[in-house]
Amino acid sequence: MENMNIGDWGHLGVIVAFVAAVVSALGYFMAARGRALGEVDASWQRLGRGAFLVHGVAVFGVIVALFGIIHGHRYEYYYAWSHSSNHLPVYYMISCFWEGQEGSFLLWIFWHVLIGFWLIRSAKQWEAPVMAVFAFVQLFLTSMILGVMLGGIKLGSSPFILMKEFMPDLPVYKLNPDFVPQDGTGLNPLLQNYWMVIHPPTLFLGFALTLVPFAYAVAGLWKNQLTNWVQPAIRWSLVGGGVLGVGVMMGAYWAYETLNFGGYWNWDPVENAVYIPWLVLVAALHALVLWQRGKTGLRTAFSLVVATFLLVLYATFLTRSGVLGNASVHSFTDLGLSGQLLLYLMAFVVLSIGLLVWRWKQIPVSEKELTMYHPELWVFIGATVLCLGAFQVLVTTSIPVYNAIVGFFGVKSNLALPADQIAHYTKIQLWMGVFVALLSGIAQLLWWQRNDKETVSATFTIPAILTLLGASLVILLVRQNGDHQMSLPYIALLTTGLFGLLANVSMLIQLLRRGVRLSGGAVSHIGIALMLLGILASAGYSKIISQNTSGLLYSREFSEELNRDNVLLWRNDAAKMGKYELTYTGQYFDVPGVPEYVNKELLFPVANDEYKAIARGEIKVGEKTYYKAGDTLTIRPEDTYYRVAYKQPKTGEEFVLFPRAQANEEMGGLLASPDIKLFWDHDIYSHISSVPDPNKEKDWSEAKQFTVAMNDTLFLNDYFAVFKNAEPAHNTAGLGLAKDDIAVQGDIIVYGEKGRQYHVHPIFLVKNGLVGRVADEVEDLGLRITLDNIDPQKGKFTFGVATTQKDYVILKAMEKPFINLLWSGTLLMGLGFGIAVVQRGRKPRPVPASKAPRSAKQPQAA
Question: What does pTM read for this prediction?
C-alpha cells in the first residue's frame, strides 16, 4: 500500500530548505552590505542566522525521510526502487542513500550545513560576508533536488517522486494505478563494499570544505580585506586538503579491492574530476603559506583558492550533466539538470572572477626579489608544477565538453579521448611527480634556516649522498633481478622520491634536536614521497604470475590476453603457477551471521526464495556450530566466492583466497572482484577471469542406470560409490509435502580422489499421485545422480548417473611490489595535514636561544 505522507513531508522539507537558504543569503547579504568588516546590521544578521538554522533543520528532516523510504522498502518511490532491494543489509542501505544524484547532492548539502553551523559560532567578524556566500551556495545546491516546475521549466530532480510519476507509461499502472513493486532493482554490485559506505561521505566532506577558503576569499574581496582572510583560510584549506586527499585515495583503494583491472587508478574522467581540484587546492595552500611567511604570492593565492572551488563545480557539471556519456563508468545519467548545473557554475564564475578583476590592482604585490636561496621560490615553483599537472589532466578530460560546445553550434568534432589513457596521462604526470618530490625536499631543507652558499651546501650534502647511494642500490637490484630494466623516467622518479623522503626526514630530525615542534608539512611531504615510490614500484613493476605455460589455447573465443595471462584450474586438481601450487576447491556463499564463507555443497536452495537455503549438514567455524542439518538460513546468492588455495612447496607457506564473481548480463557478463593476500613487501592480487556460465544449462551425458541393494557398490568410471541407506525425506527443502505424499531420500557415499568422500542424497517422491525425482549433484566430480525407481519387494533401487565436464575457473594473479608504500604514504600525508591543522590553532612556541638556527626569526610550520 502506498505511503504518501513520508514523501510529502520530505518534499515539503526540500522546499522549506530552499526558501530558508534564499532568506538566509538575503539576510546575511543585507547585514554586511555597505559596512566595514565586523560592522553588521544586527536585525538582518539575526534573520540570516535564524533562516540558516531553519534550513539546517529542514535538511536533517529530508535526510530522515529519504532514508526512511529506503530502509522501509517503500518501492512506490522511484529512488528506493532504483537503488535498494529487500535483502540489502543496513550498511549497504546507507550506500543506497548516496548512490543516486539526488542523495549525493543531499549529502553535500548536509556537510555544508554542519560547516555553516560551525562558522556561525566561530567566524566572528567574518560571519556575515562568509555565511552570505555559504547560503548562496546552499540555495543553488538545494534547487538541484527541488523537483518542481516553474513556467514549464523543471527545477531540480526530487528524490521523493513516485514510480507512477517517473514512469507513467508502464502498462501495469493502466491496470492498477496503486501498484507497488515487491522488490527494488538493488544496489550496484560494485558498490556493495564497505569502502562505499565511507568513501563518498569523505569525498563530499572534502568538496564541502573547499567552499570555506573560497567564501573567505570572496568575503575578503567584497570587504576589501585583502590580507586578513589568509589566516582563517589556511587552516580550512589544510582540513580540506587532508580530507579530500584521503577521500581520493579511499576511492583508489576501493578500486584496488573491488575492480578487476589490476590497479587502483585508471585515469577515468570522473577520477580525474576529483583529482584536479585537489592538486589545485594543495597549490593554493602553498601559496597562502607563502604570503603568510614572506608576503609574496597573494594574487596567486586568491586565484588558486577561487579556482579550486570553481573546479569542484566543474567536476560536478562533468559527472552529473551526462556530457561524459560513455567516456566514464562512474558518471551519473542526465536527469535534465544540465542547464541548471551550467547556470550554477557560471553564476560563481562570474561572481568570483568579477570580484578578482575589480580588486586585482589593489591586491598587495611583493617587491622582494627571490633568489635560489629563498625557500619561497621553490615553494612557488612547486605550486606551479601542481597547477601544470592539473591543467594537463583538465584539458584532456574536458574533450567531451569541447565536442558538446562545438556540437551546439552544429559543428561535428573529431576530438576523442586517448585510446590508451593510462599511457597518455602517465607520461606527463610521472614527470610532475619527479618535480614535486624534488621541490618538496629542496623547499623543506631551506625553509627552517637562513640560507647562503655555506649553509645550503652543508644541509644538502647528507640527503644527496644517501639518495644517490640508495637509488644506485635499487637500480642494481632491479637489473640483477633480470625481469625489468629501469627507464630514465623511472630512475628520475626513484631518485627524486628518495631525495624527497630523506630530505624531509632529515629536517624532522633537525627540528626535534632544536626543540621545535613537529612540522606537519614535512610529515605530509614524507607521505607524498612514499606514495610516489609506492606508485613507481607497484604500477611500474607489477608482474603477472599466472602466465599460461601449458601450451594450450583455453578457447578461441577468449582474447589473446586471457589465453596468455591466466591459469586454468580444474576443481580439486593442483596446478603450478610460478613458485606457487594452486588448487581450486569449490564455490562458497556469504551467509549473514557466519564469520566465514560457507561451501555451496552444504546448502540446499529453496525453490521459491533464492535468498533462503537449507543446511545439508552442520555449518561450523572452529568449535562453534552456527546451523544444524535441516535448519533454514539466509544467503546472499548474488555473489559466488571461489576458494583458491595457494601453497609454496619450498617453504610450506599456505594461504587461501576467495575471489568473487557474479554473472550479471546487465553489466557486461562476468562481474569479478579480486581477493588480495597482503605481505609486507608485496601483494598477491587474484581475480577470476572466466567460469562456466552459471545461467547456461550443463551439458550432461546420457544417464547410466545402476540397480543395486543397500551397501552395494556402484563403479562410476574414475570413482566408485556405496549405497548406504534409504530414508524418508520429511524435511527436505522446497518439496512442499502434504500428509499423503511420499518422499524417499537415498544416502550414497561417493569416493573421489585423495580419499575425499561426498554424501549424495537423490530423492524419489510421489506427490498428488504423480511421481517425481530430485537429482543431487557432486560438482567436484561432475556427477549427477537420480533415484529413478524403487522395488520394495526385491529391496532394489535404480539410480541414474550422468556426467558432465568438471567445474573449473580461469584465474589471473599479479604480484604488486611495495604497494604498502602507497597506502602508508597516504596515512602519513593525512597525518601531516592533521598536525598542521592543530599547529595553526596554537600560538608559536619560542625556541630556546641555545638551539635556535641561524635564521633571524623562526619560520612557521607549513
Answer: 0.90
